[in-house]
Specification:
heterodimer; A: 575 residues; alpha/beta; Rossmann fold; 3 domains; 22 helices; B: alpha+beta; Alpha-Beta Plaits; 2 domains; 4 helices; 40% strand; binds thiamine diphosphate; binds magnesium ion; EC 2.2.1.6 (chain B)
């Protein structure tokens, strides 16, 4: 029998759980835990420069690895600084465990120094939260936290730890709990057999089907099953932004992503579909546009592990609660029973889709020629070439995010890392760092904007301390581009507070941290700079790419319209 | 439509605020709310009356079920059920009015549980509409205070909500 203090139990538990890195920042209420971490070597602590960055690092790691990211912060301001990162993870269903120091139990409720009711503050943005009541509860509570964070529909879990729970003088028996059970929590996996059969029947009769896959494909590790099913049925596949890479974009059946800035062909196909198979999606407003005009002729099959996602915004005709992987495999099983498949020919449907594709071919944007100011889109395409389409691509939020999603083509899941649901500027740099630390031999590219980057640029110091070689591509349009685009479209170009005067000289800024920045203005300069950037996998390089500030992201949904109502450029819109 | 949803909730700190917070967070409405321990010390029972169309009620039950602290849930209004609420009402009771009030109390099968020279305190149980009717009947004599427990209920017959 082993007696450990609460603090030592935490350190030991993290080791036993197989956690390699935790990201955090110390303070009074967490100091016993920090001392315990100091006295061991198994779990490595990464000191950030702002607690929000710790949560985004954990988030980035979780999106790339599929495992929960772990954060440690102190009470009060430490915990409140983590709130944006917790909300970001919650909106995108990312597994995360956040350990928060708290004032000692006897002080709770007295407005003690650095006391914040963080369980209360985070209540609407966590999957669940715990407060430690006794040190001996620590192993089981932590196990529950990890289990909840990573099972079912994943999400962040907060564990509040009053300082007296980790006191070095109080020791209790420690046993690593291999398994925990919770009577009130048993996420479904298998879908309903009858419903699955109904779904297959409907798909086989469909004349204009579309498969619409989301983040659930990535978190649910269902890419392979999805790809098999799509090929088997010869059906077009579109994904949400969260689902990028869940179906290979190089594949002929891929329509790219859909929604507000999705591809023309994806949005057109959705609008005209007669059957939509939604898998691991939540039909959010950035996808559907006006729900009452959404896909008027479609019957909807909706597979999701979270029953509350089904029929929340769009009513499902065939709802199936279950894990994407299981249900898709069940569908494949049913299909093989039906050889030869009495499958309706999709030739007409494919020729319509191919017409939509060719309508926009070569018209997406006009790349800059020699000596001209770069277009952001072509920068993304050049980075795609330079990294052979095989980098982890992380973004911040804004136009650059949409361009990155549109022009970097993804063939693998877990490679696209972007704050989709909350749209958190500042997410990018720390998320990229979290990935690079655990995937040292891969290229991790951050597409950012000068606005977003400045929200978390203090983390360059963390990169310096831990030698984190992310590649940063700043699509510098000298403005809060996405805001400016909306102002161009909706406010007669009155650019209220969307212009970033007094930008730093990024070369000087980066050199202050001991890093290199290269300023790029033309296509020729870009090619040379990219070669330098990717020469050494371990060097942090910052490309300050001056791009055309007038560029807009298209297509763009017309507000309140249907899926097919889109602006296609500054001068064209769908009829 | 009005629905009565009964929930078995883990008797854990924070559980109640999660359940109640959900309603404001998701823009669902709460008309009455009633919470108390059960025969099982690890569980409390929460009953909420709410209104909404089918889609809203479906979301309410799904979102509640998703809370880790919610062990079981039933929408009592989906079947035959018994609904009860208790109310204490203080009314002005002077002179001739005292008999008049007494008669109304009898008609409603309520009880006078406290008396002063100028005030009656009446206890009444029933479904929400009976309590509403009593409040209306007492309005002319002058209501001083109303305390209602909120609706509680069970399904009729052998259907039970337990583990
Ligand atoms: C924390 C935060 N604040 C505000 C916004 C609103 N917002 C969305 S995009 C954007 C502009 C981003 O500018 P930049 O990072 O330079 O990217 P660009 O659009 O220019 O590519 C803003 C302010 C946000 N998403 N997140
Ligand atoms: Mg910008």
């Amino acid at each position: 029998m082993e007696l450990l203090s609460g603090a030592d139990m935490i350190a030991r538990f993290l080791k036993d759980e197989g956690v390699e890195y935790i990201y955090g920042y110390p303070g009074g209420a967490a100091l016993h835990i920090y001392d315990a971490l100091f006295r061991q070597d198994d779990v490595k602590h990464i000191l950030v420069r702002h607690e929000q960055a710790a949560t985004h690092m954990a988030d980035g790691y979780a999106r790339a690895s599929g495992k929960p990211g772990v954060v440690l912060v102190t009470s009060g301001p430490g915990a409140t600084n983590a709130v944006t990162g917790i909300a970001t993870a919650y909106m995108d269903s990312i597994p995360m465990v956040v350990l928060c120091g708290q004032v000692a139990s006897h002080l709770i409720g007295e407005d003690a120094f650095q006391e914040t009711d963080i369980v209360g503050v985070t209540r609407p943005i966590v999957k669940h939260s715990f407060s430690i009541r006794h040190p001996s509860d620590i192993p089981v509570v932590l196990k529950k936290a990890f289990y909840l964070a990573s099972s079912g529909r994943p999400g962040p879990v907060v564990v509040d730890i009053p300082k007296d729970m980790t006191a070095p003088t109080e020791r209790y028996e420690y046993v690593y709990p291999k398994k925990v059970r919770m009577r009130s929590y048993s996420p479904v996996t298998r879908g309903h057999a009858g419903q699955t059969r109904k779904a297959v029947d409907l798909l086989l009769k469909a004349k204009r089907p579309v498969i619409f896959a989301g983040g659930g494909i990535v978190t649910g590790k269902a890419s392979e099953a999805l790809t098999d099913l799509a090929r088997r049925l010869n059906m077009p596949v579109t994904t949400s932004l969260m689902g990028l890479g869940g179906y290979p974009q190089g594949d002929a059946q891929s329509l790219g992503w859909l929604g507000m800035h999705g591809s023309y062909e994806a949005n057109m196909a959705m609008h005209h579909a007669d059957v939509i198979l939604g898998v691991g999606v939540r039909f959010d407003d950035r996808v559907t546009n006006n729900v009452s005009r959404f896909c008027p002729t479609a019957k909807i099959i909706h597979i999701d592990i979270d029953p509350s996602s089904i029929s929340k915004t769009v009513r499902a005709d065939v709802p199936i609660v279950g894990a994407a992987n299981h249900v898709l495999n069940d569908m494949l099983g049913l299909l093989s029973e039906r050889e030869p498949e009495q499958h309706v020919s999709l030739d007409d449907w494919w020729s319509r889709i191919n017409e939509w594709r060719s309508e926009r071919e070569g018209k997406l944007y006009e790349p800059a020629g020699e000596g001209e100011t770069l277009k952001p889109q072509q920068v993304v395409e050049a980075v795609h070439r330079a990294t052979h389409g095989d980098a982890y691509v992380v973004t911040d939020v804004g136009q650059h995010q949409m361009f990155a999603g549109q022009y970097y083509k993804f063939n693998k899941p877990n490679r696209w890392v972007s704050s989709s649901g909350l749209g958190t500027m500042g997410f990018g740099l720390p998320a990229a760092m979290g990935i690079k630390l655990s995937y040292q031999d891969d290229d991790v590219v951050l597409f950012t904007g000068e606005g977003s980057f400045q929200m978390m640029m203090q983390e360059l110091s963390t990169c310096k301390q831990f030698g984190i070689g992310v590649k940063i591509v700043n699509l510098n349009n000298q403005s809060l581009g996405m805001v400016r685009q909306w102002q161009d479209l909706n406010y007669k170009s009155r650019h209220a507070q969307s212009y970033m005067e007094s930008l730093p000289d990024f070369e000087v800024l980066l050199s202050a941290y001991g890093f290199r920045a290269i300023t790029v203005r033309t296509p020729e300069e870009l090619e040379a700079a990219l070669e330098e950037t990717f020469a050494d996998k371990h060097e942090l390089v910052f490309l300050d790419v001056q791009v055309d500030p007038r560029e807009h992201v298209y297509p763009m949904h017309v507000p309140l319209g249907s899926m097919r109502d889109m602006l296609l450029s500054k001068t064209e819109r769908t009829s | 439509m009005r629905h009565i949803i009964s929930i078995l909730l883990e008797n854990e700190p924070g559980a109640l605020s999660r359940a109640v917070g959900l309603f404001s967070q998701r823009n669902f409405n709460i008309e009455t709310l009633n919470v108390a321990p059960t025969d099982d010390a690890t569980l409390s029972r929460l009953t909420v009356t709410t209104t909404g169309d089918e889609r809203v009620i479906e979301q309410i039950t799904k979102q509640l079920n998703k809370l880790i602290d919610v062990v079981k849930l039933v929408d009592l209004t989906e079947g035959a059920h018994i609904e009860r609420e208790l109310m204490l009402v203080k009314v002005k009771a002077h002179g001739a009015q005292r008999d008049e009030i007494k008669r109304t109390v009898d008609i409603f099968r309520a009880q006078i549980v406290d008396v002063t020279p100028s005030i009656y305190t009446v206890q009444i149980t029933g479904d929400a509409s009976k309590l509403d009717a009593f409040v209306q009947a007492m309005a002319p004599v002058g209501i001083l205070e109303v305390a209602r427990t909120g609706v509680s209920g069970v399904s009729r017959g052998d259907k039970v909500l337990n583990l």
